[in-house]
Write a structure and sequence with these properties.
Layout (H helix, E strand, L loop, with lengths): L1 E2 L4 H4 L6 E2 L3 H21 L15 H14 L1
Antiparallel strand pairs: 1-2
Helix pairs in contact: 2-3
Length: 73
């Protein structure tokens, strides 16, 4: 995984961009980040508010989140 920010133009970008070699790996990495966020908020007694996309593009991510929830709680 590579986090952008190495060129001058990328240094001023406000959105973090992750580049993964496969869609499956990207889904796993994003699901891990979302899971960590939700768990840290819950541990602090707070709720996590997520804005999630619709359509077919994020289906792989949602499948991975479901898998993590079923297997790890």
């Amino acid at each position: 995984m590579r986090v952008t920010g190495s060129t001058e133009a990328e240094q001023f970008e406000k959105i973090r961009v992750l580049v993964s070699p496969t869609a499956a790996q990207a889904c796993a990495e994003l699901a891990a980040e979302i899971t960590a966020l939700v768990r840290s908020k819950a541990q602090a007694g707070q709720k996590a508010v997520l804005g999630l996309a619709t359509g077919s593009t994020p289906v792989g991510l949602y499948r991975e989140l479901i898998r993590v929830h079923r297997e790890e709680g």
